[in-house]
TrEMBL record:
Name recorded for this polypeptide: UDP-glucose 4-epimerase
Source species of the chain: Trichoplusia ni (Cabbage looper)
PANTHER family: UDP-GLUCOSE 4-EPIMERASE
Cofactor: NAD(+)
Keyword NAD: yes
Gene: LOC113494210
SUPFAM superfamilies: NAD(P)-binding Rossmann-fold domains
Pfam families membership: Epimerase
Family to which this protein belongs: Belongs to the NAD(P)-dependent epimerase/dehydratase family.
CDD domains, per the entry: UDP_G4E_1_SDR_e
Domain NAD-dependent epimerase/dehydratase: 14-273
Keyword Transcription: no
Group of enzyme by EC: isomerase
Subunit and interaction comment: Homodimer.
Length: 364
């Protein structure tokens, strides 16, 4: 049963799993910035496995700061999405209209060492979430997928019709692919489901305030946070993984997208749910359509930060591809969305976050 107060339906809620993390926290911020009053509640569930909470605080730092930035309240529950009972209580407490599902483990290398943990969290967690949604009659879902589902590109740019699931090299990547397949099957079995799988290219950047941003635990695996930590002096040099790829300067080329553009893509995707007749499973790329090489990223970050970024070329990283970038036509057509932030914005905003918060959300 959906919760009601004296027979009157309570304010609709958007349930955001993993909303304390990097992409989730920026999406929550954009959702709150877009509403003038209290049209809907934001309910975040997160087990804090990859989000930081200060001693004595109820909410993780990211959410606490968002409340300050937006002057709005976020409902927060510390729970694991595999805990069906805890999740059910959230659906019984709030009038959940739709779910944006970010919660997952995402370290590619770690997933090779701990496949069961990754499949359990990413696939098991997603199944429990969807079972709970069905139990409470909630059928609108936005899923955080990845361009990794395309594997080694057979053609570029990568359009949504490109085959998926071929040649995937990590349990992480496979978990994203398997979840999409499960969602397809589910939406065939029951026409009530409306599922939008957003295939992110490479999210970078931070909120323009520089108050929230990406805060990886340990040494970053991904390029942008690594460069930022070199610039701020936490790491001594960037290791560039190979300069013998068939790309203009030999280093890997990726489609980096500002996390605020990505967040806006989620807001636009939610609007699709209101379109008459919209149902089933839909995969949509979120990228800019433009690729930049590792050395172009280093140069852009140096210009934005005014800091030198020492780097050394080493061998290729296992599982890496030479080039990928997105075909953005479907996102333009279906969502009326396009990325507007430039590479300079991505670097400037990352630098604002990193230089203001050299230790991420931890103050010491
Ligand atoms: P993140 O680690 O910063 O955020 C994920 C959040 O989910 C964290 O706060 C973590 O504590 C939480 N979480 C993890 N497992 C959970 C569980 N079982 N129950 C409850 N909470 C749990 O990661 P992110 O970069 O914000 O990524 C968000 C989503 O986007 C993930 O699904 C990821 O696979 C996907 N994605 C990310 C990228 C990227 O480069 N950041 C690219 C493509 C897709
Ligand atoms: C990574 C993930 C991929 C995920 C994507 C999302 C791996 C193997 N793959 O891919 O599953 O979907 O992020 O954003 O982690 N690079 C360096 N030095 C570094 C780090 C990276 O040279 O220290 C290079 C890489 O070789 C690559 C580029 O920088 O050419 C971007 O790397 P990264 O940020 O890890 O992203 P992806 O490789 O696209």
């Amino acid at each position: 049963m959906k919760p009601t107060e004296n027979g009157i339906t309570m304010t609709p809620a958007i349930l955001v799993t993993g909303g304390a993390g990097y992409v989730g926290s920026h999406t929550v911020t954009t959702l709150l910035e877009r509403q003038s009053g209290q049209e809907f509640e934001i309910v975040v569930v997160d087990n804090l496995s990859n989000a930081y909470r200060s001693e004595g605080q109820k909410k993780p730092e990211s959410l606490r700061i968002i409340e300050e930035i937006t002057n709005k309240t976020i409902h927060f529950y510390e729970l694991d999405i595999r805990d069906a009972d805890a999740l059910s209580k959230v659906f019984e407490t709030h009038n959940v209209e739709c779910v944006i599902h970010f919660a997952a483990l995402k370290a590619v290398g770690e997933s090779v060492e701990k496949p069961l943990e990754y499949y359990q969290a990413n696939i098991g967690g997603t199944c429990t979430l969807m079972e709970t949604m069905r139990k409470y009659g909630v059928f609108k879902l936005i899923y955080s997928s990845s361009c990794t589902v395309y594997g080694e590109p057979e053609r570029l740019p990568l359009d949504e019709g490109h085959p998926t699931g071929r040649g995937l090299t990590s349990p992480y990547g496979k978990s994203k692919y398997f979840c999409e397949e499960i969602m397809k099957d589910l939406s065939i079995s029951d026409k009530k489901w409306k599922i939008i799988s957003l295939r992110y290219f490479n999210p970078v950047g931070a909120h323009r305030s520089g108050r929230i941003g990406e805060d990886p635990a340990g040494i970053p695996n991904n390029l942008m946070p690594f460069i930022a930590q070199v610039a701020v002096g936490r790491l001594s040099e960037l290791k560039v993984f190979g300069n013998d790829y068939p790309t203009p300067d030999g280093t890997g080329v990726r489609d980096y997208i500002h996390v605020e553009d990505l967040a806006e893509g989620h807001v636009k995707a939610m609007k699709l749910f209101q379109q008459p007749g919209f149902s089933g499973f839909h995969a949509i790329n979120l990228g800019t359509g433009t690729g930049y090489s590792v050395l172009e990223m280093v140069a852009a970050f140096k210009a934005a930060s005014g800091k030198d970024i020492p780097y050394r070329i080493i061998g290729r990283r296992a599982g890496d591809i030479a080039t990928n970038y997105s075909d953005v036509a479907l996102s333009h057509k279906l969502l009326g969305w396009r990325a507007v932030k430039t590479l300079e914005d991505m670097c400037a905003d990352t630098w604002r976050w990193q230089s203001k918060n050299p230790n991420g959300f931890k103050t010491s």
